[in-house]
Here is the input.
Amino acid sequence: MNNYAAVEDWISQLPDEILIKILSLLRYAEVARTCVLSKRWKYLWTFAKCLNFDVPTNKLIAIKYRYSEKLIKRDRPKYVNWVNRALQLHMCSDVTEFIVSFPLGSRNSCDIDKWLMFVMGKRVERLEVDLFPDICQYSGHTPSLYTFSDEVYSIFKSPCGLSSIKSLTQLTLKFVNLPGEVVEHFLSNCPVLERLCVWGSKLLVTLKVDSSSSRCLRFLEISTCYNIEYVDIYAPNLVSFIFTGMRQGVQVLVRHAPALSDLTIGIIGGSGQLYHGISAFSSYFSQLESLTLRLSLFSWEFEVPNSPELPNLKKLTLDVSAKELHSFLDWTSFIERSPLLQRFTMKLRLKRERGYIRVPHKCVHKCLKVVEFVRNIDLELAMYFIQNAVALEKIVVDCRPQFSSPQVVFTEDERSMYLRKRVEELRTQLPHDGINLVTLPCIQDPTCLRLK
Here is the structure.
């Protein structure tokens, strides 16, 4: 008997409802390909409830690394036509997830307006619009941001629009120009909203999150909105808050956040802004379990503030950009005020390094198990941990670039070779047993990327 003749297609025998649920777990490009399987599958994909128009990772990385406006201009019409065609063919009355992710701007306003109006009639649960024009800035071209048209906003405020957004649980708007009024409209009229992320809006100046609009809100991110001046938060169930616009003159008032345990603060400026950022959240440091500080240290006069007490902190991350490697031994006060700290991560972006190393001081840490260095190594700090963290099990050195993917092959360059040398230096300082040094693949040289 022919073995192939004996094989039955069990999947196609499943009910349509189950097949549609399976399809909804895939990206839309993958979903559409199923139409060629058989007559049964020819139109089944048009009923998928998950519309994820996310570009394949390897293409995104190519754009991000090469910063090529030529690539973006070439692929932008293809992307827009792809989404338009898919929405024309879509047959399902509900959409659980709608994601668009590509460098688009004001020139694409008509199409983006149509997409949002389409979603309004579908009772969407997760809406993500990520237009990331920051990628284009490296090519010298900065497209103007897409802004909600009056027509779209009026639909959002209409009875039909209010009814459709009530099912939203996750809302992400990246590099969409919208004022605080629009953000507060979503907060006030999405009773089950759990996650809200706003990136890169130039119109966002003030934002108020009050008790009537944040009953379910657990995650809030306000990033790269550099014109923001005032944030007022009353969110009884907020667990995670990311704010990366702390600068001189910005007022952040967290009036009530008893569940807050994960905090990220991005500082724009020097020591004064860091003091300001820490004082804004001083009432909540005692309950934090995870803290991330994003800093730009471009001044010799940067003074590290005294750390507040962090009695429940388990994870600490320093994400630092600097012209020259400051001595991060000055930052160990944050570690020493965290008796339960289990994982420390340092992300370093440096222009040049200091030519000398300070001797670390003694301070025993009993709970710290994992130390991670990303993109560079601070040998001073590494030695500090080796000598003081008695429970240390692993040091991880992650030399991969910020955007990486298993589909993209990188060649080793001078920087990655230098980091390997630093790793070997560090290895000679390790005790003979007890600490595992892990080096993640050094994959660099973005010039080897090709957009397929």
Observations:
- The first strand starts at residue 50 and ends at 54.
- The two ends are 42 Å apart (CA to CA).
- The CA atoms of residues 105 and 295 lie 29 Å apart.
- The chain has 14 helices and 19 strands.
